[in-house]
Each structure stands twice: as C-alpha cells, then as structure tokens.
Amino acid sequence: MIFSSLSKRERKITVTTAIIVGACAIFNLFIYPTIIRWQRLGEEITKLNVDLYKMERNLQLRDRIESEYRKYERQILTTGSNEEEIANLLREVETLSRHIGLYMRSIRPFPIQDEGFYRKYTVQVEVEGEMRTIGKFLYSLQNSPQLLKVERLQINARTATEMLRTNLLISRVSAGRKKEAKSEI
After folding, report:
1. What are the φ/ψ torsions at residue 139 (nearest 5 degrees)?
2. How far does CA 91 lie from the centroid of its chain?
3. In angstroms, rounded to a whole number, what is the distance separating the alpha carbons of residues 26 and 24?
4. What is the pLDDT of residues 112-170, one digit of tens each?
5. Is 41 left (phi over 0), alpha (psi -120 to 50) or beta?
C-alpha cells in the first residue's frame, strides 16, 4: 500500500536503502562475529601448535632427561644415617686435599640443617698450600661426584712465602631416602 503510492524514484531509493540496511544488519549480526571468531581460533591454533612443538621436543628428550635425573638422584639420595653422611663428606674432602697435596690444618663439621625434604651437611676446612694447588682443590671439589658446593672462601697470604692459608665452608645437600614400595598382603 504505502509502497504502491510512492513514485518510481522513491521506490528505487527505498529498495536501495532497505538493501543497504539489510546488508549492514547481516554483516553486523552474522558475518563480523564469524570473522572475529575465526581470527581468535587462528590465534589459538597457532598457540596450540607452539605448545605441541614444545611437548614433542620434550618427549624426544625424555630418555636423556630421565637418565640425567637418575644419575643425580643417586648422588643426592641419602645412603645412610646422618653420621655416615657427614663421615662420607669428611672423607671426600680429606681424600681430595691429600690427593692434591694440600696441608689440612683443621676440619670441623657443622650441625646438620634439616630443611624438610632435604638435609644440608656443612664442613669448615682450613688448608694451606700454593695458589696452584688450592685452585686444583677447588676444581676437584666442584667436580666431585658428591655434588659438593663451596659456600665461602677466604684466602690469607702468609708473609715471606708463597703459601696461602685458605678457609672454606663446604656443603652437600642430601634428599631423604628412597622410599621402598610397601607390599600388600
């Protein structure tokens, strides 16, 4: 009715306007949200592909990581009582210093620090030797199979000789014993 009373030119303008308004409504209600969702999915796919690549790389390195873990696990697990552990630490330090040729002036164990899931064994050592032998001693401590750590190093020069008096604080961390599986009856 209203449409039939319009002139030919007005009908063309009305139809064109209705087509433009309809196209804008369809774009804003259906097409644009789909484009936005598509872009988000593309970004999520890219992120998931990166995560998948990292996971695949970790799976390829799994055997190497597990063997490295087993190696360090054996070194850090407690094998005996606290007294045995501190004795092993003292023996290792004495053996290394004797092997290199350092004169051990004193060696004193500190109380064991229980930090919950691990224990820290600390020893204070005073050695005397030349700079070269002290360097070798420090190197052998750092490369010891017991994973020893030099926490403090104090070097004092002796007058009129090339001998150095060195005070070291050496520690070793040990985890709790390996738990054995309980047998169920």
Report:
1. -65, -45
2. 31
3. 5
4. 888 777 888 889 999 888 888 889 989 988 888 778 888 999 988 877 777 888 899 99
5. alpha
25 within domain boundaries = yes
88-125: burial string, b at 16+ Cβ within 10 Å, e else? bbbebbeebbeebebeeeebeeeeeeeeeeebbbbbeb
The predicted-structure confidence for 50-75, as pLDDT tens digits, reads as follows: 999 999 998 889 888 888 878 777 66
- CA dist 128 → 93, 153, 170 (Å): 14, 13, 16
181, part of any domain = no
pTM, 2 dp = 0.56
Judgement on whether residues 170 and 81 belong to the same structural domain of the protein: yes
The single-letter DSSP state of residue 147 is: -
**Domain carrying residue 85:** 77-175
* One domain for residues 22 and 111: no
**Residue indicated by tokens 């490369």:** 143
DSSP element (H, E) containing 128: strand 118-129
- CA-closest candidate to residue 148, choices 70, 82, 98, 94: 94
The predicted pLDDT at position 75 comes to 67
Residue 65 lies in a domain: no
**The two three-digit tokens of residue 81, written as one number:** 């009582």
Distance CA 59, CA 57 (A): 5
Q: Name the amino acid, one letter, at 183.
A: S
